[in-house]
Design brief:
The protein is of the alpha/beta class and 205 residues long. Helix content is 35%, strand content 14%. Strands 3-2-1-4-5-6 form a 6-stranded parallel β-sheet, sandwiched between helices. The protein binds magnesium ion and zinc ion. Zinc ion binds next to loops.
Length: 205
């Protein structure tokens, strides 16, 4: 299918695409979550632009460098391309307001749930917010998507199930638009919703 202008899926990285590893930065420690490469291929085939938006406070803390992050992303894309997918753009926040070292210690505009990374992506990609999504495993990812003005999908991988249950325990309304077990289920939901005008969010997949 041809690229459909402006339909963007923004993706959190750790716990959404790959296993949550403590301050992941070495390519050899990258483990994709089951079905994640396939989900990325499905979304690409359906014509979506795929953009990773990730907080990388490990840079701020001095655990690894921007160069490490960029090398990891290049490696990730090599692996995804073997499965027929790819990420079109990677954006990361290297800052932390409290634990940052030197110039990385700052209250920035890019750290999720703020929207600076989405705005950076907009300089390179067209974004039709009404047909775009944020997928992540933390409430902070979902808040970022809402702050920016796109629909949100919480995945149950990483911290997702925990954050969903915590909200339920507190008797709060769901903070996300849709909940999916994993990235593949999230991809199916988005593809169906965007492909079929009669599709209702409450329809089960
Ligand atoms: Mg995450
Ligand atoms: Zn930042």
């Amino acid at each position: 299918m041809a690229e459909r202008a402006g339909r963007v899926v923004f993706l959190d990285r750790d716990g959404t695409i790959n296993e949550e590893v403590h301050y992941l930065h070495r390519p050899e420690d990258l483990r994709f979550l089951p079905g994640a490469p396939e989900a990325i291929r499905m979304l690409k085939e359906a014509g979506f632009t795929l953009i990773v938006i990730t907080n990388q406070a490990g840079v701020a803390r001095g655990y690894y460098t921007c160069r490490d992050v960029e090398a990891l992303h290049a490696y990730m894309n090599e692996q995804l391309q073997k499965e027929g997918g790819r990420i079109d753009g990677f954006y990361y926040c290297p800052h932390h307001p409290v634990y940052g070292i030197g110039s990385y210690k700052t209250v920035c505009h890019c750290r999720k749930p703020d929207i600076g990374m989405f705005e950076m992506a907009e300089r390179n990609f067209s974004v039709d917010k009404a047909h775009s999504y944020m997928i992540g495993d933390k409430e902070l990812d979902i808040q970022a998507g809402h702050n920016y003005g796109v629909q949100s999908v919480l995945v149950g991988t990483g911290y997702g199930a925990e954050h969903k249950e915590a909200a339920e325990r507190q008797g709060r309304e769901p903070f996300y638009d849709y909940y999916a077990e994993d990235l593949k289920a999230a991809a199916r939901y988005i593809i169906l919703k965007e492909g079929d005008p009669a599709f209702r969010p409450e329809d089960k997949i």
